[in-house]
UniProtKB/TrEMBL annotation:
The keyword Hydrolase does not apply. It comes from Ignisphaera aggregans. InterPro entries: Acyl-CoA_Synth/Transferase, ATP_grasp_subdomain_1. The lineage of its organism: Archaea, Thermoproteota, Thermoprotei, Desulfurococcales, Desulfurococcaceae. Pfam families: ATP-grasp_5. This is Acetyl-CoA synthetase.
Length: 236
């Protein structure tokens, strides 16, 4: 596993202000932030076919490109693939569709990982402010994020007690204790992610912002299934 500075410097050498998805996952994994068990970047349908069984099903596919922000809008996301034949077809179709819709996009490959079971989704993020330093954010994810816009903030460094305060002070915190037949989720797992995001930001001044969205939370654990890391332009 590469250390954070290696990951970041590699991107900066290429004059990139954004980590590619597999790099972002590698970065947060270093800090012990939970991600899908096996995340693989493939560059061809054949490679996807050979590796699909080792990942397990259902599989999610996401296009990896510096030039594509909203992947689903251009056919760059496929979910729920249940066999290596479906995976091969999905990769072929994705590469073809994306190249037509965004003809000048630089495509690094396709990210493959096993889909996490559905559950409550939350967001954890961090941003570097010129006045206040590192601020970390927590809120509900999914449809709740758009409808409620219910978030809390703290200035880093953040302790576990701080993280629990952030979790409990959002207006809709009761949802975390169970709703509509769904049991309570693991607040400790969320708090640990918040603390680790604080540590990551403080130890890597090159990181301008980070967005873990969604973080899927269960009764026993939490798992980050999408991450975005933006680097500061002052380090180019």
């Amino acid at each position: 596993m590469r250390c954070p500075k290696e990951i970041i410097r590699s991107a900066l050498r290429e004059k990139r202000h954004k980590l590619l998805e597999h790099e972002a996952f590698e970065l947060i994994k270093y800090y012990g932030i939970p991600i899908p068990d096996k995340i693989i970047l493939v560059r061809s349908p054949r490679e996807a076919y050979e590796l699909a069984d080792s990942i397990g099903y259902p599989i999610a596919l996401k296009i990896v490109s510096l030039d594509i922000i909203h992947k689903s809008d251009v056919g760059g996301v496929k979910l729920g693939l249940m066999s290596k034949e479906e995976v091969v077809y999905g990769v072929e179709e994705m590469l073809k569709t994306v190249s037509v819709r965004v003809p000048h996009a630089r495509i690094t490959g396709v990210l493959m990982y096993r889909m996490a079971p559905p559950s409550l989704e939350v967001i954890v993020g961090g941003i570097r402010d010129s006045v206040f330093g590192v601020a970390v954010m927590f809120g509900l994810g999914g449809v709740f994020a758009e409808v409620l816009r219910d978030v809390s903030f703290r200035i880093a460094p953040i302790s576990m007690d701080d993280a629990f305060e952030m979790i409990n002070e959002i207006k809709s915190s009761k949802i975390l204790d169970g709703y509509r037949g769904q049991g309570p989720v693991n607040k400790s797992a969320i708090a640990e992610i918040i603390v680790k995001v604080s540590k990551l930001m403080l130890e890597n001044e090159e990181v301008d912002s980070i967005d873990l969205n969604p973080v899927i939370v269960y009764s026993s654990e939490a798992k980050v299934v999408d991450v975005r890391v933006i680097l500061s332009k002052m380090f180019y």
